[in-house]
Design a protein that fits this description.
Layout (H helix, E strand, L loop, with lengths): L7 E9 L11 E5 L2 E3 L2 E4 L2 E5 L6 E7 L5 E5 L10 E6 L5 E6 L3 E8 L6 E6 L4 E5 L10 E5 L6 E5 L8 E2 L15 E3 L1 E2 L1 E2 L4 E6 L7 E8 L2 E8 L14 E4 L2 E4 L4
Parallel strand pairs: 1-8
Antiparallel strand pairs: 1-5, 2-3, 2-6, 4-5, 6-7, 9-19, 10-17, 10-20, 11-12, 12-15, 13-14, 13-16, 18-19, 20-21, 21-22, 22-23
Length: 255
């Protein structure tokens, strides 16, 4: 009897960049270096590439209701045992913050709303955040931001693949020791291009939607508060932002 061996070569998670929810839309297609191929489906927006080999390639993702996405699958940057890729999909019918900023390398944001979850304490040795979570919100496999008390900046943290209500364990140790009662909010992922183009989208579900935007330019972190209904043209302006350079935070003064 023939023995058939299956090798898992890639795990792909499709996630709505605006809501953080898995994307289960069935009207979708994938291409590898321009050639259409099929992936095995687990459910919950998780798909597998089996026996596809582990050579780097360009993955094209087209999902109904979302902007098309192209990503370089670089196996050297993925876990060898379990190569996993998160694909953040931007919804088409949403408020847009977009423009061009030379040198931008990353973009994300948190909504400035009444927090539902806070930091209680952080054990740096165990890398465990204990939460004050009165509404019992479930923090699942997403990226979250821990804001400072004045909401000038936040530190993005990726959680391990487990749900948390009372405690969570970041995938990597925190750079900044958070203070008690620092708010915790889910991050909205944006998209940047090599030519400096950027785009971030937020679902239009309120009369006023303020976001604290984080973006990186030349190794520095910039933070800027914007209203999504009227962001303006090329809204990201380092001259109007709060900048963090390594562990030092200073306010950029406009001229």
């Amino acid at each position: 009897m023939a023995i058939i061996n299956h090798k898992l070569d890639l795990v792909v998670r499709l996630i709505d960049a605006s809501t953080g929810k898995p994307v289960d839309e069935r009207n979708r297609s994938f291409a590898r270096d321009g050639k259409v191929f099929r992936m095995m489906e687990k459910g919950g927006g998780v798909l597998f590439l089996i026996n596809g080999g582990r050579e780097n390639f360009e993955l094209s993702v087209n999902v109904y209701g979302y902007e098309a996405k192209k990503i370089l699958v670089d196996y050297g940057a993925l876990d060898e045992r379990m190569p996993e890729l998160i694909v953040w999909l931007l919804p088409k019918n949403a408020l847009s913050l977009e423009g061009n900023l030379k040198g931008i390398t990353s973009l994300c944001a948190v909504r400035l709303v009444t927090p539902g979850c806070f930091v209680n304490s952080y054990d740096a040795k165990k890398n465990v955040v204990t939460l004050f979570n009165p509404h019992k919100l479930v923090l699942s496999y997403h990226v979250y931001g821990i804001l400072d008390s004045e909401k000038k900046f936040f530190e993005p943290i990726l959680l391990n693949d487990e749900d948390g209500i009372e405690t969570v364990k970041p995938a990597v140790p925190l750079k900044r020791i958070p203070a008690c009662n620092d708010p915790v909010e889910r991050i909205i992922e944006g998209d940047v291009r090599a030519d400096g183009g950027y785009c971030l989208k937020v679902r239009d579900d309120a009369d006023r939607i303020e976001v604290l935007v984080r973006y990186e330019v030349e190794g520095k972190e910039f933070f800027q508060i914007l209203e999504m209904h009227e962001p303006g043209k090329d809204p990201l302006d380092p001259g109007k932002a709060f900048v963090r350079d390594d562990s030092e935070e200073t306010e950029v003064k406009t001229g």
